[in-house]
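Bit of a strange request maybe. I'm writing a small parser for structure token strings and I need a real example to test against, not something I typed by hand. Could someone generate the tokens for this chain?
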Amino acid sequence: MLASTQRLRHSRDITRVHSKGKPARSGPLQARALRNNRSTSRAVVVVGKKVSKKAVVRNLIRRRLAAVLATQWETVTPGYDIVVTVRDDISAASTAEQTAWLTTLITNLELS
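Reply from user aminoacidic:
Good idea to test on real output. This should exercise your parser:
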């Protein structure tokens, strides 16, 4: 789990990153990153109802990806807001696959 200072919480910040951020895609994941004027990076994982109508499944996906992102957080360049969006149901995907997708996203966004 990411620390509270590393989480992007406000909808206005998420909207700003969605509209102005640099995009990248890897498998069923999409991400956008935008420079912030802070000494730390912040991130959020967004899982919409198109992925699953069940909140339990959406929350499971969100928690798993946040945990994988937390393990890779040391490699992320400070000073960015990152929004990771899940496009397909990845609840059956292994942790290794999720790690590979997130690593590719971080590399494509030039954040490592």
